[in-house]
Protein 1
Amino acid sequence: MKLQIKNICVTFEQKRILENLCMDVQDGEFVALIGPSGCGKSTLLNILAGVLTPESGEVFVDGTPVHGVSSRFAYMPQNDLLLPWKTILDNVTLYGRLHGQKKQAQEAALKEFPVFGLQGYEHAYPDELSGGMRQRAAFLRTALCSADIMLLDEPFGALDVITRNEMQDWLLRLRAELGRTTLLVTHDIDEALYLADRIVVLGGRPASVTREIDLTGVQKSRDWLYEQSDLRKEIHRILRNEIDH
Ligand SMILES: Nc1ncnc2c1ncn2[C@@H]1O[C@H](COP(=O)(O)OP(=O)(O)OP(=O)(O)O)[C@@H](O)[C@H]1O
């Protein structure tokens, strides 16, 4: 087991948000976390990233308890912004440079520029790139962290539908190459179906895991996705019911 989340409870302003939340993620697994708006998905990622301490509960990576900020997690928060006054190369190597490893970080980044569709833009500034390219650059910055678990909070949320679909196709191709355990928060049911090995649906107030959909081993394609109306309806129903409560 790569990641174990055990009995996490969170209360904000006397309101219980997460109640005994438990979930496991296997090594190399890509899990999509979906749930009604405000149910606590970002809160869970903030706990894993160590920027928020839960009231109770524990997080284990490879069986070892993790407390506070840990180098085991690479976190791409919602609206992960590039610094407009820095080049793309400087932006994506930010963490390496902060740790005094500028040269190694640049070497590692330059190797990935073609993979991330950014070749030729190393010395460009963020406003010279399209929205999709900026998002790939922010993603590359996260992927370059030498952490073994990636936490992605709505990485394509700000993109138009066409660019978003292109980014999903690109991430599906890249997934095997990255080989990284990933927890993706998304509002987009199709994105979850298309990208994930497993979908975890959070529901209820306070939130806990209400449904898990195992898609391990499914050969994903857009044609496969278009045929998933039953699963799509089921997830919609769960989300709608939870919202109505
Ligand atoms: N620091 C905080 N102080 C008080 N309340 C908070 C805090 N952070 C989050 N909340 C509340 O906790 C609830 C869960 O927030 P969270 O952002 O985790 O939900 P979410 O599922 O990620 O939402 P969305 O899908 O809209 O991004 C919301 O009601 C939010 O207003």
Protein 2
Amino acid sequence: MTTVLVKQTEGCSDTELPLEGAQACLEELKESLYKKEREITELLESEQTPIPPIPVAQPPCAVLLRVVVEKAHDICSEVSEARLLVDHMFEENRVALAQAREKLDHMSQMTADDNNRKEEDNSDPEWLDCGTEHVLLLQETLRECEITQMALDCIRVGDSPSLSDCDTAPELDEMLGKGEGVKSVGQQLLLLQDQLKQVREENRKVVENYTSERTMRKKYYNMVEDMKGKIRVFCRIRPMSRAEAAQGGAIAVGCLDDYSVTVETPRGPREFQFDRVFSGKSSQEDVFQDTNSLFSRLIQSAIDGFNVCIFAYGQTGSGKTFTMVGDRDQKSPGIMPRAFNAIFDILQENATKFDFKVSVNMLELYNDRLQDLFLSGAEAQSRRVEIKRNRKGLVFAQGAETKEASSAGELFAMFQQACANRHIAATKMNVESSRSHLIIGIMVESRNLTNGSVSFGKLSLVDLAGSERAAKTGAKDDQLKEANSINKSLSALGDVISALSSELPHIPYRNSKLTQIMQDSLGGNAKTLMVVNVSPSDCNLDETLTSLIYATRVKTITNIAQRNLESKEIAQLKEVIMKLRSGQPVEDEEV
Ligand SMILES: Nc1ncnc2c1ncn2[C@@H]1O[C@H](COP(=O)(O)OP(=O)(O)OP(=O)(O)O)[C@@H](O)[C@H]1O
């Protein structure tokens, strides 16, 4: 395309207008764009096929995406060629305009001088007319150049040269209708401008197609990963805090689309992909969203008998508690209180088909010690809570108080009581920093009223304490001890994530209580969602990159989630065993 354009422009004779070459070239360009649009439409139509089955060698949209990208590149280069041509014409006309002005000034001066002299000499009036005529001709040429320049100027900024806007409209109109050369320039300019508009429009369409293809491809990819049992990872960028703004921090983290985060590093931008990305503008509702959202599906799974874990991870002050718990006065509740409502909404809807029992325990891991948040004071200190695993590998807290909840309101009241017992303190990075990991376990037992089968689901909601650097948080004494314990447990979590993502034969779960608690959620029998929280500011660039790199590793971990379901007979036999163990009488028909 470039070669053709250059040849045609260079090949113009003195009498030929360079615009004619450009028009031919644009005609060709237009034709090729129509052809490309037809190709894209055909490709899009041929892509109306269902989601490919697993394993997928290469998703079809990836092929289409490459074609769309190539076409977008072609069109972009064609648009810039057209722009170069207009710029070139503008420059030529500018020189012609300056020359015409100079000639006119010179000629006017000469004519005026000669007229004065001839008047004084009483010379032939015919000569006077001749000079004046020459000046008039030059004036007309100057006018043409000025109009052309105005039209080119409009085209360069992307406007349409409008006749009515211009005070020279009647003259331009007349010229377009009269003089052959001028008409050709004016018409070709308008044509050029029209074609440029078309190219822009087509370019916009291609970019739009490319963006929607890219989004669709990521969505399908995520669905396939979900089906494979991969841990889902959401990323949430919080708004810039006042402290960060006061430090003069610039925004270094942003979302490219619903699935991509970009981070400005000293070595250039770095992109990360997640199952969903929320910007600082996203509300709590956006995060917890409508019934099709992953959160709702996960809660449904817990009720159906799966082990489900949702946890927030990130640097101190990055927004984990805001995401999981919400703000202090619960005007913007987070995932936990919203999950309580969602559970009981689903139970309510299915009340005629199932018998449900919801029980809950709430713990914190503080200074490497598990504490029951339903207890306080000396009672909490003396209670020993230990992490155990049952024969199916599911983790449970032995010794923890388990309470039954019959409504979302009751569950929320228990939650508030637990939060009041949680260790929080002010640090330089966060006025209400969590000094412990909060672990809420909601067990849902559902008995099918039709066939008598019983399923046992567990929803674990975890708000991790944030990793921190003592120098940044200003931690001393007890807070330094807390920070060391938090960092140690998070480092153990990091080791587990690294071992799982590298598929090492040994996974160091036993190195920390935190990793023991999360054993079934990371690489085990669970459907897991991690929310990685990050600050947008360049003041926290190192911590943000570390969090995003860990979150990217978590995405590669595969869990094998199985439903915990027992037939009616097994459930009955278990009940009998329990009764016998506790010395209760057993009826004949029960056995
Ligand atoms: N998406 C958000 N929108 C508005 N404010 C937010 C958002 N995320 C966090 N914040 C605010 O930022 C501050 C720090 O958030 P938060 O306490 O949730 O951080 P954290 O990661 O839990 O920190 P730590 O690990 O120290 O407990 C809080 O004042 C919180 O209200």
